[in-house]
Specification:
This protein is of the alpha+beta class. The protein folds into two domains: 112 residues; 53 residues, SH3 type barrels (Roll). 61% of the residues lie in helices and 16% in strands. The chain contains six helices and five strands. A five-stranded antiparallel sheet has the order 4-3-2-1-5. β2 and β3 form a beta hairpin. The longest helix has 33 residues.
C-alpha cells in the first residue's frame, strides 16, 4: 500500500491530526533552521546579541501566524460564526496600527538594517539630515531606533525608518 492509498483509507479526523502534526513538526524544524541562520549571520557580521535575539523573535512570531492559519484551514474552522469577532478585532487593530504606523515601520526597518546595516556598535557615523544632521558613535541598535552618543556625551535616538531614508557616512 502506497502513501496515497493509505491517506484515502484514513478517516478525516486522523488525516487532520496527521497534517497538524506534520505542520507543527515543520514549524519546529523551520524555526531551528531560521534561528541558526540568523545567529550565524549575526556572528559573522559581528551584530550585537540583543539585535539577533529580537530578529529571531520577530521571525518566530511571523511564522507562527502562518502556521495558525494553515492549521485553521486544516481543521475547517468556520469563520462565519467568528466573523463578527474578527471584524471587531480588525477594526480596533486597524485603528491601533494606523495610529502606530511609525512603530511598525521602525520594526520592519530594524529587520532590514539587521541584514544590511554596515555599521556596528562603536562605529562613528554621521546621519545626513540637512540642518538636523547627527554625528557620533553608535551606542546601540534596537528594534525601534539607532542610539548615537554625540561628542557632548548626549545619547540621541534616531528612528530606524528614517535611517533607511537618509545618507549615513562612516567616519574613521
Amino acid at each position: 500500500m502506497n502513501v496515497i492509498e493509505y491517506l484515502k483509507s484514513v478517516d478525516d479526523r486522523t488525516l487532520q491530526l496527521l497534517i497538524s502534526g506534520m505542520v507543527v513538526l515543520f514549524y519546529l524544524i523551520l524555526i531551528k533552521i531560521i534561528e541558526k541562520f540568523i545567529k550565524r549571520y549575526g556572528k559573522k557580521m559581528e551584530i550585537a546579541l540583543p539585535r539577533v535575539i529580537y530578529t529571531v523573535k520577530y521571525f518566530r512570531f511571523v511564522l507562527l501566524i502562518f502556521v495558525l492559519m494553515i492549521l485553521g484551514l486544516t481543521w475547517d474552522i468556520s469563520f462565519e460564526g467568528l466573523s463578527v469577532y474578527f471584524l471587531s478585532f480588525f477594526t480596533v487593530a486597524g485603528v491601533a496600527l494606523f495610529a502606530s504606523w511609525s512603530l511598525l515601520s521602525n520594526i520592519t526597518s530594524a529587520i532590514l538594517l539587521f541584514f544590511y546595516f554596515p555599521y556596528r556598535i562603536g562605529d562613528r557615523i554621521r546621519i545626513v539630515d540637512g540642518d538636523n544632521s547627527i554625528e557620533g558613535i553608535v551606542f546601540d541598535l534596537n528594534m525601534f531606533s539607532i542610539i548615537i552618543k554625540n561628542d557632548d556625551g548626549q545619547k540621541v535616538t534616531y528612528p530606524n525608518n528614517l535611517a533607511l531614508q537618509k545618507a549615513i557616512i562612516m567616519i574613521k
